[in-house]
Design brief:
The structure is a homodimer of 174-residue chains. By secondary structure, the first copy, chain A, is an all-alpha fold. Chain A has helices at residues 2-10, 17-23, 28-34, 38-61, 67-78, 84-92, 99-120, 125-148, 157-172. Chain A contains 9 helices and no strands. The longest helix of chain A is centred in the first third of the chain and has 24 residues, at 38-61. The structure holds a DNA duplex (30 and 30 nucleotides).
Chain lengths: 174, 174
Amino acid sequence: MAALDAIGSHGLAGVAVEPLAAALGATKGSFYWHFANRDALVTAALARWDRVYTEEILAQVDAEPDPARRLRLLFVSVTATSLAPVETNLHAAADHPLVRPAVRRAVKRRTAYLGDLFEALGFSPEEATRRALFAYSAYLGHLQLTVRLPAALPPDHDAREAYLDTILGALLSP
Amino acid sequence: MAALDAIGSHGLAGVAVEPLAAALGATKGSFYWHFANRDALVTAALARWDRVYTEEILAQVDAEPDPARRLRLLFVSVTATSLAPVETNLHAAADHPLVRPAVRRAVKRRTAYLGDLFEALGFSPEEATRRALFAYSAYLGHLQLTVRLPAALPPDHDAREAYLDTILGALLSP
DNA sequence: CCGCTTCCATACGGCACCGTATGGTTACCA
DNA sequence: TGGTAACCATACGGTGCCGTATGGAAGCGG
């Protein structure tokens, strides 16, 4: 779906009919035969985002049985830089009436998953909910830095590993 | 500065000459006498943001001598919901050529301050840098949720206090 | 071969914004 | 008091986008 790529590279405003059609070597006339309007395209992109960026990732991570290793695997999977632009730009566009419900649904789904994970690690339900929200906030901020200011992040692989150790150590401290 | 308010309520794209002039009861002709163009207005808004949203806040927090209480005070000050929209929208617009250097500067300044704080709390310089980045990421994500999805955050005052305790506990765990 | 559906292109009107041109008003000052 | 600078309003052209109207071209069943 080219619309999701456009969200990644130019944000929600980048999902524009005329430039997109031109980039695909087509014309507006063609586009408006396939879609009712721009909103329909955005809606389709959001549905695709929900499948690929939430359900598939969680299903894949959920294969790991050990909760601690599952949390680490989740962080590694989810900070892959290829996902970052779309994630960041969609969260940033969550004031848009079409985007808001999709993002709300994703945040609920993801924080619930994280909450279950922290419960499996031995925290009380309330504490698990708090740590889940904390972890998700850190995830959001990390992605934002990844996209906008990568120079602020640890430079090489070793430093990133140490950084991940720090994060997981803090999140799992009793 | 009305431009900063516009960034808060409608993002960088909300800094538009004609609507802004109309909102102030003026006209474009008046605006273009005071500013060379839209970019000049954006630049002025960014300079003001740097003063009010970084320097003043840090100066105010720095009055607290105890590092642990200073960290808590910093979090409380900085998660005031009145600051959240401008902060979030500016970070979200950091791909813009005028905004990028301003945000980069702010992030550097703030993470450096946080790093000093964690060093004052007894962490090694490297660990302090990691925790500073972690704390700033969590801050960014938290603000984003505050603006876009406030329903995802702890609902009442007691829950927010418990949440803050969890966060500070995790950030300060050895 | 005819007519119908499917798919695509060109052309148009409309909107919101940027920036410029130009004239007008106020006020101060030589 | 006449000139000049500071400030503001109206009007215009340009751009990039949305959505519609309209006319094909290609394929396929009757």
